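Side project, low priority. Logging it here so it doesn't get lost.
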Amino acid sequence: MVNLHNLYRGLALEFHPERLKQPNAKEVFTIICEAYDVLGDPFRRAIFDQYGEEGLKAGVPTKDAFIHPYHYHGDPLLTYREFFGTDSPYADLLDYLKNPPAIYETAENKAVKEKKPPIKHPLVLTLHEIYFGGVKKMKIHRLTFVDEKQTRTEITEKILSIPIKPGMRPGTEIVFFEEGDQHPAYEPADVIFITEDKEHETFVREGNDLIMLVDVTLEEALLGTIVTVNTLDHRTIRIPITDVIDNNYEKIVEGEGMPILEKYPEKGDLKIQFKICFPNYLPKASREMLAKGFQLAKLGGGCRQHEMINKLVLADKILRVGPEERFPPI
């Protein structure tokens, strides 16, 4: 994941008009600074992510208030100055003079400490942890200095507290700067945890939605059923299915998915998909009744065959009820 501040630093220095003597350098520099002015502010970035540039610059009506249009102040050097603390196109060199890199000495010479490549670890999270958020503790072992001259190291243990935001997506990188091994000749590496979703027994995560696969019998597929869902927040909900279920049927339950990271506490949807289990055997009477239903449906144009079958099944059930159990005539 690209760090926004590092990206802006590099592009702003590269396209500074006094540093890059090109005809369109100022225009590109202005675009870079305006983009950082938007993306560097969490509120503006949230509006841009949801409504795009048009919504950001035109304003957005909401149920509570009207979000006023965004207008860039038009001074890219102001944005540059607020970030670097100077108008100089050589801010990187000034920073180098103020904060020179660490030096280590050997018996033969002096050298600049190079930083070790980042150390990446997978961070497997359950859907329950992602749903509620919180803090996850991870233990690491690393070499640390044990003397004042910083020449000797020993293995030590450290507990890192990793913040988990509700709705955090897989592939998110959580960086702990310079938490790697300490060494006289190197700067410690960054430790990066990369999130992964742990497999769940019921749900599969797809963006902000949860997918649930349910097995139903042919009878349930034709006549309807009720699906019981045990949610991640420990509720039990019952979803009536009254439509005929086919291989492409999907029941969407709004607001029962995962938290949306940028819009918390809003949630995605629960999408229930179905696998129809056909019977291994059908009695002759059942075959004849189904055959009759399909034949009548074809005679009627071949459309909505399931309605005809439903009526036949219902009529068959009524005929099976004894006379003494039937309702009296109206």
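Brief comment: The mean pLDDT is 83.
Revisit when time allows.
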